[in-house]
Design a protein that fits this description.
Distance between the termini: 16 Å
Radius of gyration: 21 Å
Helix content: over 70%
Number of strands: 0
Order of helices and strands: HHHHHHHHHHHHH
Number of helices: 13
Oligomer: single chain
Shape: globular
Length: about 350
């Protein structure tokens, strides 16, 4: 069977380019004076809208169906909310030699963010892993992160490391948890509308996050936090995150094997358990860190692009594994490789 040709270049996420352009706009034209409260208010509304949509989109049926593979989901959750934070805490010795305190706070916050959904599914599919398990694992991680990420941040970051305070818990409830619960309650009424307009709402999601990034980096410019960053520090951050990603990819793959998972489940665990969600992390950082959010989200933005590039290469290698099954059909069966002559109906497709 002829394998599809995959692009040779590493992926550069267009959305990351949009985020970088937004950061540049905030650096050149930050919201100052009377415009600052307006930008802050719009950012707050955008965060609330995002989490309302998260709640309204969550399918209860899909979540319940995924509970049958509870060992896999617990493994992914342990990687996301136990192992990642432990590695983040272990990096504390790098302050102030390699990383400044604000950069380390951002790195630790990165370790507390839930896993991705879309990219985990995409890479699991390319590698011919357990796609339904990746869908459920990413969804469970995102749902758990709404509660666990703020609680872990309150416990591990504290009031003196990067702007987080006990008062931020109230903001979390008002700006994140209440809109999410409202979305869950209104799902029977608005769920059909969201499904019909899913492409348009995707732009709403991305546009809202861009507004959050602009407001966060504008506040950082006004507070002068960017004077704390130098090129050597950014290089050190890049190296630290490369080591972090490598460790998580190795642990999720070989650790899942030691736990007795099969190849397809190990792929799902590796791609869901080694990733961090930019879409979920950016709004949370704007609530948790305030004016320090600009520096706090920088490690997450760097890690996001790094994980896309590395996992794209890794997924393609997994797809070429001799043990990989045939391409998965829409109904979930595995296609059998047969000579074209045995399937005359397929010639006209």
């Amino acid at each position: 069977m002829r394998r599809p040709r995959l692009p040779a270049r590493l992926p550069l996420d267009p959305y990351v380019l949009a985020l970088l352009a937004t950061v540049g706009l905030a650096a050149l034209l930050p919201a100052r004076g009377a415009a600052a409260p307006v930008a802050d208010g719009v950012s707050t509304a955008a965060v609330a809208l995002l989490f309302f949509l998260y709640g309204a989109r969550l399918s209860t049926r899909e979540a319940l169906d995924g509970l049958r593979h509870w060992r896999l989901h617990l493994t992914v959750l342990a990687c996301t909310f136990v192992l990642f934070p432990a590695l983040g805490l272990a990096a504390r010795w790098m302050v102030p030699g390699l990383l400044t305190q604000p950069l380390y706070s951002g790195l630790l916050f990165l370790c507390l963010v839930p896993s991705t959904v879309q990219s985990s599914i995409a890479f699991t599919s390319i590698a011919r892993g357990n796609v339904p398990a990746a869908i459920c694992a990413g969804s469970f991680s995102s749902l758990a992160g709404i509660v666990l990420t703020p609680l872990l941040a309150a416990t591990l970051l504290g009031a003196g490391t990067g702007g987080f305070s006990a008062g931020s818990l109230g903001k979390i409830v008002v700006q994140l948890l209440l809109p999410f619960l409202l979305g869950r309650l209104l799902r029977p009424r608005v769920g059909g509308f969201l499904v019909r307009h899913k492409p348009v709402l995707g732009y709403v999601d991305r546009g809202s996050i861009l507004l959050v990034v602009y407001a966060a980096f504008s506040a950082g410019m006004a507070a002068g936090v960017w004077h704390q960053v130098s090129l050597p520090r950014l290089g050190a951050l890049l190296a630290v995150e490369a080591v972090l990603l490598t460790v998580m990819l190795l642990v999720t793959w070989y650790g899942a094997g030691r736990l007795g998972f099969g190849r397809e489940d190990r792929i799902a665990i590796q791609f869901a358990g080694s990733k961090k969600s930019l879409a979920a992390g950016l709004p949370m950082a704007s609530v948790l860190f305030g004016a320090q959010a600009g520096l706090a989200v920088l490690p997450l933005m760097v890690f996001h692009q790094m994980q896309l590039m590395v996992c794209a290469v890794l997924a393609r290698r997994r797809a070429r594994d001799p043990l990989a099954p045939g391409p998965e059909l829409p109904c979930g069966r595995v296609a059998e490789v047969s000579p074209p002559a045995q399937h005359p109906a397929a010639r006209g497709r």
